[in-house]
Amino acid sequence: MRAADAAAGAAAAAVGAAALGVELPLVQAGMGGIAGPALAAAVSDAGALGTVALYKSDRALAAALVERTAARTPRTFGVNVIPEVADRLLDQQLDAVLDRADRQLTVNSYGLPPQSFAERVRAAGHRLLIQTGSHRDARTAAALGAHAVTVQGTEAGGHHLGGQPLAELLAELRADPAFDLPVFAAGAVGTGADLLRVLAAGAHGAMCGTLFVATAESAAHPDYRRDLVAAAPADTVVTDRFSIGWPGRTHRVLRSAVTDAPAPLPSALIAWTTVMGTRRPVPRGSAAAPTVEAEGRVGEMARYAGLGVGAITGVEPVAAVLARLREQYARALADAGVPDEARTPDGAR
């Protein structure tokens, strides 16, 4: 990597960090059932942007999640909403956020939200981060009033908003003179060197999900965390086999008997889990990820994982994961020949 590109990336990182009010321009993805208050608070305490997932929460549960996260950290954090699956709950979730927020938050929308939603977020003084999967949707997000956008490549774990690799998306936005929002890159960012790579390619920061699933504060099932530790990028696959409850999106997951079967396996009950306080069955093909409440054949559930999975070497506290990422980032800057005074954000010094 050329020193000039690395230095430009370091400067972009300062812009990304300022856009979200954090030290490190890194956003923890909102992962339904996995990203609870403990994980979100730990990430924020470590200097990045933690995110609590509201997923399909009703107003009461969304309010409780915001309150519990706020009680765990004095720092800013994010709340993740998914307009296409929340449906009629979306307004209830936003009502809860606006009612219970005791500081400026980042409302992180997976996909384009309604215009009225975006207007309410901005009017209340919160930041709006919209996750997209195409150049066109990033432009639409800007028109909606987003303060920043995330562009998600197909390298990312979880559900996909588009079908392009990350480098292609970043190149398109970089070449667009009319697009001037901070951009966060999602897809295969698991190390500090990966962070510098996307910064040098035109991003202002990154969004990571897989990296945080295996942490001590995650609400992922122990078997899911163990499988992530053992996995390599080749152990992931893009499929459409987990569409029950979230149709119409492909998703990157760990390989299993479900993904590798030449045809969809027969419908069957494979596990039980708890959703919004209620014990519910998990059919084969459900979009539900295996959380600590899951019991049954969790290896056949949707174990979302991106190509950055190879960076996971054990189940560790978030603080240790992000301390190592900061060290790796600083080392990558030094290896590229970037002088100390140009190494931003603060955590890279």
Structure notes:
This protein has helices at about 5-20, 35-45, 60-70, 85, 90-100, 115-125, 135-145, 165-175, 190-200, 210-215, 220-230, 255-260, 320-335; strands at about 25-30, 50-55, 80, 105-110, 125-130, 150, 160, 185, 205-210, 235-240, 250-255, 270-275, 280-285, 295. The protein is of the alpha/beta class and about 350 residues long. The protein folds into two domains: about 5-215 and about 315-349, Aldolase class I (TIM Barrel); about 220-310, no CATH class. An eight-stranded parallel sheet has the order 1-9-8-6-5-4-3-2. Strands 7-11-10 form a three-stranded antiparallel sheet, with no helix packed on it. Helix 1 (about 5-20) crosses helix 9, helix 2 runs parallel beside helix 3 (about 60-70) and helix 9 (about 190-200) packs across helix 13 (about 320-335). The longest helix has 18 residues, at about 5-20. It comes from Kitasatospora cineracea. This is Nitronate monooxygenase. Keywords: Flavoprotein, FMN, Monooxygenase, Oxidoreductase.
